[in-house]
């Protein structure tokens, strides 16, 4: 056996400050402000900046936070919309050496209080719009030293009091724009903290590192083929997985961030037209809202817009609608634990010449790993052996690489469970197609097992979406004495259209095997998160309670 003595490449070739620097996305904004100082960076209503100014504001924020006593590994929490202040926090907070905690703006006071306490927040930056919830959360806290800073966005004219010691602009005024960022000593240092939805108890805190954020910014530019100076519309909340790392993507891209405080079809189309938006991201419901907007709103938009869909597989109707308006939509896939969209489904040569039915089939796949994710595979959850590339053998999607979280904050057991066997376990069930692309079948908890047969809720939903009167549908398992469980479909109808339970059942018979047809049809509003994801756990609770009274 050969001795493991040092080789010629192990001697005198050590790391040093000249050849090794910890990776951080803070370097992206520094470079862009140096190379393209006068290139537009952020626009929001009547306010706009160039990259030189945005860097100065981010440095001011970092400097001001340091003066408040914020330092390495301190948590700065924010409850903000997609505004310039939120964008600046993605650089100013880590630039102070701290960790950015973006909080979902639709959470209740008790959950906000839990997050602030669990994250041990030192500073809270909050938009005036959320004063009612935040003020209640502050009353529940046991952190008297928490410093609260208010954001008073000129684009917001609604109610909401100020809760803090000063507003955001006053805070910036105390900072020094020439003071450099505090760079991480190790690229494994935490850069941000995001909380999962907490559908089964308290949410878990997902910790990202500087290395993943840096590489993700470059990887998305390559994986999505974004040209320099792209124009990105903020339809995806920046609080959701740090906007799938697109704040850092756009700094590396030297592009323009078009802020959007609230999702509305007219506001979206106005910004696409005015700023010639080239890219945006969102859940299927956002793309549906855009594609089904009145033709009058789309007037004057003649350029191609690239869209990335995530959060849930887009139904066929959405894919077809996007194709008809000329938008270039691809599917993305990931989880909070993988920085958002860590897989994409790039289109291969010849795609544009295919029939619509084939395009829809291909576009609905979750795809392959992005350039940053080392590997993503469909594995047998028990043996961790790869499933055959046959489009039939179902396994669990598992990932590993630089685009996977550090772990769950203050939850070592959950972290160990998530990384068992050297893979991150997604909990999503999928098949691998012959060309290696992954196709999600369902969440493991959303598979309906009826009489021993597995039923994909996604398959049933896609069939129901084909009904012309259906706007939104969500299928969950309902208890059944005979079969164990059967599908139950919650449906929102399109405005001005009607359908009965019998209409939906009759439609399903033309598209599904008999055992897959829902035994219960419920016409009602479907609960969704602020990112457009359907909250199926609430629907499962509802059918469970309904069943208990039958």
TrEMBL record:
InterPro entries the UniProt entry points to: AMP-bd_C (IPR025110), AMP-bd_C_sf (IPR045851), AMP-binding_CS (IPR020845), AMP-dep_synth/lig_dom (IPR000873), ANL_N_sf (IPR042099)
Claim: Ligase is one of the keywords in the record: yes
Family: Belongs to the ATP-dependent AMP-binding enzyme family.
Lineage: Bacteria, Pseudomonadati, Pseudomonadota, Alphaproteobacteria, Rhodospirillales
CDD domains membership: ttLC_FACS_AEE21_like
Gene3D superfamilies hit by this protein: 3.30.300.30, N-terminal domain of ligase-like
Alphabetical GO biological process terms: fatty acid metabolic process
Name of the protein in question: 3-methylmercaptopropionyl-CoA ligase
Keywords tagged on the record: Fatty acid metabolism, Ligase, Lipid metabolism
Catalysed transformations (reactions): 3-(methylsulfanyl)propanoate + ATP + CoA = 3-(methylsulfanyl)propanoyl-CoA + AMP + diphosphate
PANTHER family per UniProt: ACYL-ACTIVATING ENZYME (PTHR43859), BUTANOATE--COA LIGASE AAE1-RELATED (PTHR43859:SF4)
GO terms, molecular function: ligase activity
Residue ranges occupied by any AMP-dependent synthetase/ligase domain in the UniProt entry: 30-409
Domain AMP-binding enzyme C-terminal: from-to ranges: 459-533
Source organism (scientific name): Phaeovibrio sulfidiphilus
EC number of the protein: 6.2.1.44
Superkingdom of source: Bacteria
Record Pfam families: AMP-binding, AMP-binding_C
